[in-house]
Design goal:
It is a single chain. It is built from 16 helices and 31 strands. The longest helix is centred in the first third of the chain and has 21 residues, at about 165-185. The relative contact order is 0.14. The chain has about 575 residues and is an alpha+beta fold. It is globular, with a radius of gyration of 29 Å. The structure holds one RNA strand of 77 nucleotides.
RNA sequence: CGGGGCGUAGCGCAGCCUGGUAGCGCGCCUGGUUUGGGACCAGGAAGUCCCCGGUUCGAAUCCGGGCGCCCCGACCA
């Protein structure tokens, strides 16, 4: 493709709206343009990248036995009401009415639509297993879209849904997808890790997220330094501490702590370690108020609290409710004499003689003990894992890393097939529910994640398999000999199956070099007068900057080698 | 939704406090000189100053309301 005939509007300066590397570089390289918050147009270069990723995804999904379909973006409310998600999904689900006042939504995911299809079309166990996927634009009205393609409201997703005769079959389907995902992300040139994950709004029994490791990732993952355990921090289990403190209980005392609301304030004032303090956090559930106790240096994991309580919504109680329940302003809540239900993290059980809020302004108790001074309805794993915690599988201690979620695979069980009655007849003529799985890949997010992982100060360093072009051809003058060589090289490279972006603009060398580095094709072929006088052109590797002077005729073979093409 | 910031030429920004002519850099157009890492000279085009209302002889600037966008948080396959 010739630059003069393409829409590749590169920017010299950083756009003000972008902070993140991938967002900034995609805008500067002319790959995307914003239409509204979290909504982008893909320009030719951006689209080529998406197509590359989609091709890899298709090849691996097909290889794993999945079949491509295409479902509508708009779907009727009735399907969503069947599973209860019309009410449950919340504001993230964009809804609208058609001209007949019927409710519709834009699909953020397609369990309902595919399950509706399968329950109509599949009647016999002979038709299973089945795995259908699509690559399609999704819409989710994210509370806060950010980082360009990383968290858009409209984005491109590959979603697949498997239907099996039984649990055993579903596990096989799940494993096939897990393996396919590993191949896909490997082929995309990404460094990633599969981790145990929470199932969130999709639901189901278990899931793994595929995380691209990058410091800018929005997700926190923990992994065992001595083995295989890895999980999203939302999900990561914390081992129950081995033994209780041997300290003898001391008498409970109330102390004055004026203005000390935070753990830092109180520990500084009383000259104690955060681990000697127990935080009391009041949460509002749909039913009532609950107090959650964790050690002062630990963080509550709200997902774990929700699961323990069996509720779907949970938020910090507002100051008025805190005051009503404790009789004190926020910052002085404690379990002693508290009338709401109190649950506590396992770590609290092991503590003796702790500091807690006194349920009155500017006061705390010291030397409080849970079995003597206050009661705990239940102890459970309620906190986030931390670096240094023992691995729940005993394979070393946990470490923390940041990740970008590019894929998520779920074992759904019969959640959707039951709600929508997707049943088939088994060999005995008995009606059975299909056992489902679902599997997503954020295609547009993969592009952003690849840039987060592969860039330098000058621009993008595309892994060859997803690069918009393999070779950026850079003739440095408009002279007849240089132009003729460029034309010849363009033709021979193209014939060799190499995708070439030919910068035929009448620009200065510096401009071309800088744009080429920005756009990030893995190879640059530079044609200059001086080199040609010696009979050579240059083949440059973008990543390393390494240059080879070659006769033009040798370029295709050498370029293929550099690109890892056979 | 809470906190912070921004909205002025295609892009990046100044001007606003202290009301009176809308400016700079990049990009764009024309001509010339240049030509291996974002050239130079000369000339030129391009703005509902986010929107609505108010104050004022006069508003980019002051006041009120609204909208949009960015960042942090809550939230999130």
């Amino acid at each position: 493709m010739r630059t003069t005939q393409s829409l590749i509007p590169t920017l010299r300066e950083d756009p003000g709206e972008a902070e993140t590397v991938s967002h900034r570089l995609m805008l500067r390289a002319g790959m995307i343009r914003k239409v509204a918050a979290g909504i982008y147009t893909y320009l030719p270069l951006g689209l080529r990248i998406l197509r590359k990723i989609e091709t890899i995804v298709r090849e691996e999904m097909n290889r794993a036995g999945a079949q491509e379909v295409l479902m509508p973006i708009a779907s009727p409310a009735e399907l969503w009401r069947e599973t209860g998600r019309w009410d449950f999904y919340g504001k993230e689900l964009v809804r609208f009415k058609d001209r007949h006042e019927r409710d519709f939504c834009l699909g953020p995911t397609h369990e309902e639509v595919i399950t509706d299809l399968i329950r109509r079309e599949v009647r016999s166990y002979r038709q299973l297993p089945l795995n259908c996927y699509q690559i399609q634009t999704k819409f989710r009205d994210e509370i806060r879209p950010r980082f360009g393609l990383m968290r858009g409201r409209e984005f491109i997703m590959k979603d697949a849904y498997s239907f099996d005769r039984d649990e055993a079959g579903a596990r096989i389907s799940y494993q096939k997808m897990y393996d396919a995902y590993s191949r896909i992300f490997t082929r995309c040139g990404l460094t990633f890790r599969a981790v145990e994950a929470d199932t969130g709004l999709i639901g189901g029994t278990s899931s793994h997220e595929f995380m691209v490791l990058a410091d800018t990732g929005e997700e926190t993952i923990v992994y065992a330094d001595g083995g295989t355990y890895a999980a999203n921090v939302e999900r990561a289990e914390v081992a129950v501490p081995a033994q209780a403190s041997p300290e003898a209980p001391r008498p409970l005392r109330k102390v004055s702590t004026p203005g000390a609301r935070s753990v830092e304030d109180v520990t500084a004032l009383l000259n104690i370690q955060p681990a000697q303090l127990v935080k009391t956090l009041l949460y509002q559930t749909p039913d009532d108020l609950v107090a959650v106790l964790v050690r002062g240096d630990h963080e509550v994991n709200e997902i774990k609290v929700k699961k323990l309580l069996g509720v779907t919504a949970l938020e910090m109680a507002d100051p008025a409710k805190v005051a009503a329940a404790t009789g004190a302003p926020v910052g002085f809540a404690g379990p002693v004499g508290l009338t709401v239900r109190v649950i506590a993290d396992h770590a609290v059980k092991a503590l003796r003689n702790v500091v807690v809020g006194a349920n009155e302004a500017d006061a705390h108790y010291v030397d409080a003990n849970w079995d003597r001074d206050f009661q705990i309805a239940q102890f459970a794993d309620l906190r986030n894992a931390r670096a240094g915690d023992p691995s729940p599988q005993g394979d070393g201690v946990l470490r923390i890393a940041r990740g970008i979620e590019v894929g998520h695979v779920f074992m759904l069980g019969t959640k959707y097939s039951k709600a929508m009655n997707a049943a088939f007849l088994d060999p005995d003529g008995k009606e059975c529910l299909a056992v489902m799985g679902c599997y997503g890949i954020g295609v547009s997010r993969v592009a952003a994640a690849a840039i987060e992982q592969h860039h330098d100060a000058k621009g993008i360093l595309w892994p060859a398999p997803i690069a918009p072009f393999h070779v950026h051809l850079l003739p440095l003058s408009q002279s007849a000999t240089v132009s003729a060589t460029a034309q010849t090289l363009y033709d021979t490279l193209s014939q060799a199956g190499i995708e070439v972006l030919w910068d035929d603009r009448d620009e200065r060398a510096g401009v071309k070099f800088n744009d080429a580095d920005l756009i990030g094709a893995p190879c640059q072929v530079v044609i200059g007068e001086k080199g040609l006088a010696q009979g050579t052109v240059e083949l440059k590797e973008r990543r390393t900057g390494a240059v080879k002077k070659l006769a033009p005729g040798d370029v295709p073979v050498q370029a293929r080698e550099l690109l890892g093409l056979r």
